[in-house]
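Help!! Second protein's tokens look totally different from the first
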Amino acid sequence: MVAQKINEGAIEKIPGVILQAQMISQLLSAALEGRSLIWVWSIWQEIIWIWGWSLTGSLLAYYIRPWFYLAIATPIAIASLYGVCLVVIIHYSAWIPLVPSAIALIISIILIAYCIRNFPRSRVPSRSALPHPNPPRMYWGGNWISFFPPFQGGIKGGNSTCVYTVAL
């Protein structure tokens, strides 16, 4: 006897023969009617799928800064996830993880949005404004040419922008 829950919450015991008959019925209908059986991905495919939805949530939270727009984009992303899972199970009989992907999507949106709003970037000058410690050099025409980022405002009061210098 195998235990089975019924609508009222009580547990009803069904014989193992009935359970086996249901499984045989599913196999026969799959074989005779051409229906495919439900199959699942391997663990690494599921991990990549969940990671991909987590990355999607992170990118949503990073690029959509206003709370109002993020609150609109989140249900749209969850509905898209649900739609993809539904289409895949109906057309391909593949069971792909919906709930772990939705949890990863929501948690990544919350974490990235929290970090962006509570930990703003520091005011470090851009890399082009700093002198290059080891400028890239190229040997061309018998001379070494060093390339520097352009300096705003020219050289010592000049009106030109220094793009490269030639070292002999």
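Here's the second one for comparison:
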Amino acid sequence: MKRSMVGERKSGIRRLKRNRLSERMKQNVQLHLSQYVFVLVLFIMGLIFGAIIVNTLSPTQKKELIHYMGFFFQGLDQQTIADPKIAFQHSLGSHLKTLGLMWILGLSVIGIPFVLLLIFFKGLVIGFTVGFLVNQLSWQGLWFASLSIIPQNLLVVPAMMMLAVWSMQFASLLIKNRLIARRGTIYPQFLSYAMVAVVLVGVFLVASILEAYISPWLMRTAIPETVALYIWLI
């Protein structure tokens, strides 16, 4: 009886902590909406810049990318691409490295420009990939991109943006409490910053599952039929 009561009490405490963290994150978005908008604009700028780069590629560069794309489609169709387990490990490892890097950069004031650069670069990569597929395959390319790129990035991009804003806030706190006022404790804020990173690990875990197991299946249903003919004509 006592064990069950203790177990219920512990589970109740865990639920309370999760609810508090969820409320804190919601309040954070409301209080720092301008920072979230700034990070979003930076990401959109990356998307636009990535799409513009597509138009600056030389014919030789485009041809090389098209051949690579054709081999990828063939491997996808024949199911000879990486094993889902390996793809999951690579994807999760890559996401966790990004998360860890952004979190560590947020612990220093000079690291914030690099955090923002990572957001811009993420937008650039997505913009370039989608832009190239659309440029070469029109609506088929857009459909393929929407199934292969968007699902996992619906989780990854907001998670990166949230971490970027929290990194900016923590760095700002460091400036106020260490460089200007030189007083006050930052432990509660540091703990919140760390907890956000832990929550985002779960988000990246789900995104990696989508990328390794769901996206390949979706891509196989949308492999453009004109790719082989397009490569042969070139």
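Reply: Different proteins will give different token patterns, so don't panic. Helices lie at 2-31, 33-56, 59-77, 84-105, 112-148, 150-180, 187-220, 227-233.
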